[in-house]
Amino acid sequence: MTKHTIEFLPDNITVTVDKGENLLSAAAEAGVYIHAYCGGDGVCGKCKVVVDEGEVHSSKSNLKQEDWDKGFRLACLSTVESDLKVTIPEMTTKSGKALKRKPKTTRTISAKSLDTLIGTWEVDPPVSKIYLELDPPTMEDNISDMQRVMRGIKLVMPGDSREPSYDHPELIKHLPRVLRESDWKITLLLLRGKNKGETFRIIDVEAGNTTKRLYGLAVDIGTTTCSGVLVDLNTGKIIAEASGYNGQISFGEDVISRIIYAARPGGLKALQDKVIETINTIIDDICRKMIISPSDISYIMAAGNTVMSHLLLGLDPKYIRESPYVPSVSQFPLTKAAGLGIHAHPSMRLFLYPCIASYVGGDIVAGVHACQMAKSEEVSLFIDIGTNG
Amino acid sequence: MTKHTIEFLPDNITVTVDKGENLLSAAAEAGVYIHAYCGGDGVCGKCKVVVDEGEVHSSKSNLKQEDWDKGFRLACLSTVESDLKVTIPEMTTKSGKALKRKPKTTRTISAKSLDTLIGTWEVDPPVSKIYLELDPPTMEDNISDMQRVMRGIKLVMPGDSREPSYDHPELIKHLPRVLRESDWKITLLLLRGKNKGETFRIIDVEAGNTTKRLYGLAVDIGTTTCSGVLVDLNTGKIIAEASGYNGQISFGEDVISRIIYAARPGGLKALQDKVIETINTIIDDICRKMIISPSDISYIMAAGNTVMSHLLLGLDPKYIRESPYVPSVSQFPLTKAAGLGIHAHPSMRLFLYPCIASYVGGDIVAGVHACQMAKSEEVSLFIDIGTNG
Q1: Nearest alpha carbon to residue B179 among B214, B142, B138, B132
Q2: Which of A202, A203, A329 should one mutate to test binding to chain B, selecting the residue with the greatest count of B CBs within 10 A?
Q3: Is A340 left (phi over 0), alpha (psi -120 to 50) or beta?
């Protein structure tokens, strides 16, 4: 396919795209912010650009004749037909200027000092570690490696007579090597069963005693801003924070425009990739600060509104916008984060707060949960003010 | 990397390989059978070939001086250094000749007539289907698609108050589309929980009523021969059979030589690929006969000795051969067959019969299970005669 090069001014950012590519998508690909409130639907008329050199196919739509004559075009309704020089006028990038700066935390109270406001929490994470020193096999005791591990677990946790399940095939592929390299001294990472009375699941095995290293990450997936805090799951203490703008913002500013963008060819995947990229930047920031690896994080809890939650999992959000406004899922199952492209250990699970309905999301549920208002005798109201950006 | 072409005579089979490739591996890649009893360890001296043209690097090992002078070389100890013409003498391919023919079934009693010998079985497969006609969502009833399905299940199966789990993310990605395309009339494929009292799992959703189509495949993974039977899980009747030689045979004839071959670079993967290829041929044969698709098969039960079971799952079998003879796993967890490369629906599970020890495998366990000797009051002995090939 023929390729064309576009130079975006005034920032002199260059990108090469296929002939026929949509100009708004090309800008997003280049990381050039264009204000497109309606998500590229040709309705809001905000994504005005000037084509200085080269040729585009473009519809006029609701662009004023005066603007059209001056050389303005709507990026979302233009396709690339040759090499281009395109100027992004200040009005088109205005709201975006601020977005080039690192966001301040959107919280007026830092997560670390939240305890004093909402009371303390019992530390009872869904993942835990146990350290085992196993007897090496002999001719008299040559049960399989996995049976040896199960026997070791029973000695330490004699309560449950049923064997735990384990991640497959990842775990059994590594187990024999880890056992022998660690001289049969290992740490297991365990995931609690979903329902009460269900057996737990072994999701990782590490050489030696690593029980002191157990981290969880909480992520707030906002339509505008995403932020994350790293929690030491042995103590419950917050030990690092980071945040960044949700990268989806260049595809539309509110949830409706994101839903519209998701309906384009490749749109859903592009939106999912952008929020994953944002979360990865947060993870990388935190890991750099703490000098740990992303694979040291053993659990992620995330919350977002219903559209953000669907986009994170790559679920088509279109029925959320159409009457009778039905989400695909409201109680999200545990997801392997690495499977989504998140920088994480392959067996690390991501918990996404459940939604109540299409427009009452997991962000609200998480807020209600976090402030523990359910414990109050009195009728209480939870208000999520949001960015209103 | 430099490539060289090898022509194998007398069958005029040509293959192109990297310079330095092992000649036995090159022959296996070309599908040319060379008798290599020891699995390419340079010990058995069976893989004698004559290099007619071109150059190999070769060790003499235990090859007689007389043979060496005649131009014989051991394929397993030779590397390709130029384009080659290589003759496989009749003695080297002798045992292999028979292998080019389709194997007869190794059973003297066909699976279909086995009932009369061992008595009947209760039909109680681990997978089942239920058909649901759901109410479409309205403004008054706009719960999420997945909640609607869960509510539908509860109406049909009121016993269990807990929600079933489901395959993720496959199921929720397809569900909204299938629901709407089928006018909210769907069939769910359910997998029974592993432990008693565990909830079942939804592993697939199909449009319309497909409850009459429910097939299971049983596969015997022999070191020499593999065979499969297709069972109608609604009736318990065997409806098709197929078999073929285990493709691993060109890497060694018995389990010890396979273990040795698995220790070579890429050896484990090559052995796994070969048995998967064999199973796929059986599946394709059966599906052609029955005019069904491999994705119509809802469950696979397989049995093999401990080495065959490890190789199928891609587990290194080396500790099975070294004192104190320890397998990595003896109770294999359910595996997604498509993840191994088997022609199957992505959510289809493969059950592999558990092993007792390194040299008492799942084939024995399956035999003991199938003949129901545990029901007998008397002490009984089960003998698996095997191919002894």
Answers
A1: B132
A2: A329
A3: alpha
pLDDT of residue A106: 44
The answer to whether residue B316 sits within a structural domain is yes
User: Does an H or E element contain A79, and which?
Assistant: strand A78-80
Mutate to test the interface with B, among A140, A142, A144 (most CBs of B within 10 A): A144
pLDDT higher than 70, residue A335: yes
Buried b (16+ CB within 10 A) or exposed e, A56-69: bebeeeebeeeeee
Identify which of B66, B65, B91, B62 has the alpha carbon closest to the alpha carbon of residue B74: B62
pLDDT tens column, B260-300? 999 999 999 999 999 999 999 999 999 999 999 999 999 99
Chains A and B: how many Cβ contacts under 8 Å? 117
- Residue B58 bridge partners (DSSP): B78
User: Which pLDDT does position B98 carry in this prediction?
Assistant: 40
Say how many C-beta atoms besides its own lie within 10 A of residue A140's C-beta. 6
- Is B368:B118 a contact under the CB 8 Å cutoff? no
Is A167 in contact with A202 (CB distance < 8 Å)? yes
**CATH, residue B95:** 3.10.20.30
Do residue B238 and residue B90 come from a single domain? no
ipTM beyond 0.90? no
Looking at the partner chain, which of A142, A143, A329 has a beta carbon nearest the beta carbon of B146? A329
How many domains in chain A? Answer: 3
Looking at the fold, whether B335 and B196 belong to one and the same domain comes out as: no
Question: B294-325 b/e with 16+ CB inside 10 Å = b?
Answer: bebbbbbbbbbbbbbbbbbbbbbbebbbeeee
- Kindly report which listed range (A32-36, A187-191, B13-17) carries the lowest average pLDDT score: A32-36
- Which residues lie across from A14 on neighbouring strands? A7
Same domain (yes/no): B235, B340: yes
Q: C-alpha angle B36/B40/B45, rounded to 5°? A: 60
Whole-number Å distance between alpha carbons of B38 and B45: 8
- Picking from B207, B228, B258, the residue at the C-terminal end of a domain is B207
| Whole-angstrom distance, CA of residue B213 vs CA of residue B211 | 5
What range defines the domain where residue A95 resides? 3-99
| Residue A48 domain flag | yes
CATH number at residue A351: 3.30.420.480
